[in-house]
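Private note to self, pasted from the team thread so I don't lose it. Backbone tokens:
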């Protein structure tokens, strides 16, 4: 049986903002792959994204495979949008069980290269937004009898590459998730984080192009991960296969962090 049959999922950042990989018709990032995988596992999916056009591409890909998907335009840095995204999901499908916070941006650099405005924007998008979507989603998930939340962090939460605001917000996300998990374990709501390593995703291709050949030699598995491999980890944590797993972190990095 499909692992998410009968579940309703809200995927925040479910579009894919970047060029497709060579040979790909549709650009795939972690958020889009997760939305598609959730639908393949039987969930009804609300795709939330700052870009309605990108959300619609994901929803269409799901419908083309016979799945159920709707879209909502929202900016995770706006509280009202976070509230509305949850409301739209419940209105469209009748309940909410699963939330994935996939949004993450990377601006700023080293300490002295980062402005206060850049730092504030990073906190608003990469951290405060995840707090807000959880704040509005948790009462609905509790009402539905429980569920699961996955926040997408990064290996940058554990290892530094001189991207101060990215690393600080991704590390703070671990604490945010752990604390939310503690508060709502009794409501049967599990909260976990996934930490992707070097992934050949829409985000990376947009920012630095296809760097497979350049970075592969540094990775023990000698290749970047794919967004599908990140999505597999997220779907596992969303599913009942992870029924006793909460407040933890799952690293998906081909062994990179162990070096
Ligand atoms: N690709 C990697 O190598 C890698 C590594 C570690 C972590 N990650 C994390 O994975 C996540 C993103 O992966 P992706 O491949 O899906 O990236 P992506 O850049 O394609 O982003 C997914 C979607 O988020 C949307 N978005 C951006 N800002 C938003 C906002 N303010 N409100 C609502 N939606 C917004 C974009 O429009 C896009 O459609 C991030 O959290 C990122 O930090 C990626």
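Design output:
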């Amino acid at each position: 049986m499909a692992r998410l049959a009968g579940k309703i999922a809200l995927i925040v950042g479910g579009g894919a903002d970047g060029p497709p990989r060579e040979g790909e018709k549709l650009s795939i990032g972690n958020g889009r792959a997760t939305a598609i995988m959730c639908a393949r596992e039987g969930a009804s999916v609300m795709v939330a994204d700052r870009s309605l056009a990108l959300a619609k591409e994901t929803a269409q890909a799901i419908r083309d495979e016979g799945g159920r998907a709707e879209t909502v335009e929202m900016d995770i840095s706006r509280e009202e949008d976070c509230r509305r995204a949850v409301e739209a999901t419940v209105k469209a499908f009748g309940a909410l069980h699963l939330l994935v916070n996939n949004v993450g941006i990377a601006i700023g650099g080293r300490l002295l290269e980062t402005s206060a405005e850049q730092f504030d924007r990073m906190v608003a998008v990469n951290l405060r937004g995840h707090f807000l979507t959880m704040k509005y989603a948790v009462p609905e998930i509790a009402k539905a009898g429980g569920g699961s939340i996955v926040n997408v962090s990064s290996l940058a939460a554990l290892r530094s590459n001189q991207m101060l605001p990215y690393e600080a917000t991704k590390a703070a996300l671990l604490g945010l998730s752990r604390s939310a998990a503690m508060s709502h374990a009794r409501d049967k709501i599990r909260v976990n984080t996934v930490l992707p390593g070097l992934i050949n995703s829409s985000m990376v291709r947009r920012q630095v192009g296809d760097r497979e050949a350049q970075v592969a030699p540094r990775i023990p598995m000698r290749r970047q991960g794919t967004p599908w491999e990140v999505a597999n980890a997220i779907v596992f944590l969303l599913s009942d296969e992870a029924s006793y797993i909460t407040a933890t972190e799952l690293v998906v990095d081909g062994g990179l962090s162990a070096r």
